[in-house]
């Protein structure tokens, strides 16, 4: 099982949904960097389930840094962050009946029946909690360089939020909210829709839009280590992400080159583009404009309606009616995970471009 990502700053993820504890090991950070524990906890709070639109499994998500940090500063050795699981209910899971659209069946085949199936095991969205803890460190380091990251809920079914306009203030607003929409009225509509769908024992997906502001020009590589390929690798590591686009994305198909080429201009003695259809990236490299990313989160696979499945013990068709605690939607909780993975990906690229001394400057 490959659970390590990164080239210069590596993240090793471990644990399962119902095991005693899970966590990450962060390797590659130099000594002497301040670690803001309060910010890590605040980011974990954003990921927690809240109200009727989330699972009723509530975990404290109090984290422990057991190595790599001393007196509030990195020591230069690997940082280990641990988060305990304390509210498991494993009896709700039946390994012989794989849940539709989940990893249950493929995990059973790949790991020859030895997988921890409880709560989805290592495939569970529960594992995004340690990623948020690691991402908080990356977000804080980027913010010290004035590189800002923010994500909002752009769409839930036909209900649409407005896109980013004043990027700095919109990012600040996103990062202050539990349910991150730029239009408060739209956010209320989305919450009501999720509650309606939950009453019908069903689930719903959504589109998230992210913005990275003040990314320096020249970071990234062409082809195999581009900003797009790096971000895609990190973001597709988030459970339930099924699509991604940069800038205008798939809407490029509806336009001619003369309509969507980003023309260069001098503005305030800086080279910028008049438009930003390419989402701040040319040739895999940052061009100084805001990096714009959209991704789609599929509807939560665990729903309470009866569904067709197979019985792996009898090898016959069967039906499954789930019990337990499941989210009717996860995109509102996923947006802080998206911020975290974007920050980890870009931090890795920045260290590759500038060297680790850049982190300490």
Segments where pLDDT lies below 50 for 5+ residues? none
Shape: globular
Order of helices and strands: EEEHEEEEHHEEHHEHEHEEEEEEEHH
Tell me the total number of β-strands.
18
Beta-strand share of residues: 15-25%
Percentage of residues in helical conformation: 25-40%
Q: pLDDT average, as an integer? A: 92
Distance between the termini: 37 Å
Radius of gyration: 21 Å
What structural class results from the helix and strand content?
A: alpha+beta
- Please outline the major beta sheet: 5 strands, antiparallel
The strands making up the biggest β-sheet line up spatially as: 1-2-3-7-4
Please count the helical segments: 9
Can I get a quick summary?
By secondary structure, the protein is α+β, with helices and mostly antiparallel strands. The protein contains 9 helices and 18 strands. The chain has a 5-stranded antiparallel β-sheet with strand order 1-2-3-7-4, with helices on one face. Strands 9-8-10-16-11 form a 5-stranded antiparallel β-sheet.
